[in-house]
Design goal:
Layout: E1 2-5, H1 11-19, E2 23-26, H2 35-42, E3 47-50, H3 57-62, E4 68-71, H4 81-87, E5 91-92, H5 99-114, H6 117-125, E6 146-150, H7 154-167, E7 170-174, H8 180-186, E8 189-190, H9 193-199, E9 202-205, H10 219-224, E10 230-233, H11 242-250, E11 256-259, E12 279-281, H12 290-308
Parallel strand pairs: 1-2, 1-3, 3-4, 4-5, 6-7, 6-9, 7-8, 9-10, 10-11, 11-12
The structure holds (2R)-2,3-dihydroxypropanoic acid.
Residues 73-75, 98, 286-287 line the site of (2R)-2,3-dihydroxypropanoic acid (DGY).
């Protein structure tokens, strides 16, 4: 049986599929596929392993023969899951294995932003490390501050644990449903969305992109935040409104921002956020460690192998497909 893989993935996952007797065809070009290329490459394959590729209704309807689609991500906002379910195609993702690495990225952005680290690094490159001024380039400290988590799931909990352990930060959170296990583990306290905005010194986003969370952090949200607060987003760029974020920083409604995700991606290289001292931006590298990417490739491969054996896939996004 043949699997089409939309980008070259770590050897661990590829090897597992080969050992299971599958023929693995990887898209090796350093560019994404067009819809036409995706459809034509998938036509004679039994499964698809998709890395960051948009799988919309048109693609799914043209590829209804697929026995399984495994995503190389935990997020599945770029897949029309409803159509896949209606067509009987199981969709798999890679939960859990990237929680630590993604939380580390949020922590890194928080600390880098609080000390203007990315901006100061660029100033050395520009030859601006000169006269020592004790009043210039001051950051803000994180010890004892309040961390607000929007979406306290696996990744949010890892971030909360790091912040509590490193800086004794108090944790508040906003979820649709309370996370009682996390409340016990980091003494987190559930608050309303407005209270989260008003009380957080650092507000970190770890929720999925849905119709409810799209554009949630807009001008109205930023104006409710503390003027010395830091906004962090390592989830999806569409959850914040980038124009409103820029204005909130320029007008000092908030103090700083750290982004691993932008809207759109890639961010243009002359974007004004990139030149602000209190802003740190990374190119969506939340899960980009050797360990995590290898583990993601293994989970994706396990989903493909199980799906092609006609078994229920282990990491399923749309369990309704089996009903
Ligand atoms: C995920 O797994 O959803 C990460 O954001 C990588 O895309």
């Amino acid at each position: 049986m043949k699997v089409f893989v939309t980008r070259v993935i770590p050897a661990e996952g590829r090897q597992l599929m080969i050992e299971a007797g599958l023929e693995v065809r990887e898209w090796k070009e350093k560019r994404g596929l067009s819809q036409k290329e995706l459809i034509s490459n998938t036509q004679d394959c039994h499964a698809l392993l998709s890395v960051g590729t948009r799988l919309d209704k048109e693609f799914l309807q043209a590829s209804a023969h697929l026995k399984v689609i495994a995503l190389h991500s935990v997020g599945y906002d770029n897949v029309d899951v409803k159509t896949a379910t209606a067509l009987g195609i199981p969709i798999g993702n890679t939960p859990g294995v990237l929680s630590g690495a993604t939380a580390d990225t949020a922590f890194l952005l928080m600390l880098a932003t609080s000390r203007k680290a990315f901006y100061m690094h660029k100033s050395i490159i520009k030859g601006e490390w000169g006269f020592f001024d004790p009043t210039a380039d001051l950051g803000i400290e994180l010890r004892g501050k309040t961390l607000g988590v929007f979406g306290l799931g696996k990744i949010g909990l890892e971030m909360a644990k790091c912040c509590a352990a490193a800086f004794g930060m108090q944790v508040i959170y906003h979820n649709r449903r309370k996370n009682e296990a996390a409340e016990k583990e980091v003494s987190a306290r559930w608050v309303s969305f407005d209270e989260l905005l008003e009380q957080s010194d650092v507000l970190t986003v770890h929720t999925a992109l849905t119709s409810e969370t799209r554009g949630k952090f807009d001008w109205s949200a930023f104006t409710k935040m503390k003027p010395r607060s830091i906004f962090i987003n390592t989830a999806r760029g569409e959850i914040h409104n980038e124009g409103d974020l820029l204005r909130a920083l320029e007008e000092k409604q908030i103090w700083g921002a750290g982004l691993d995700v932008t809207n759109p991606e890639p961010m243009r290289s002359d974007h004004p956020l990139l030149n602000m001292p209190n802003v740190s931006v990374l190119p969506h590298i939340g899960s980009a460690t050797e360990e995590t990417r290898a583990a993601m490739s293994v989970l994706a491969a396990k989903n493909i192998i199980a799906g092609l054996k006609g078994e229920q896939i282990p990491f399923i996004v749309n369990p309704g497909v089996y009903k």
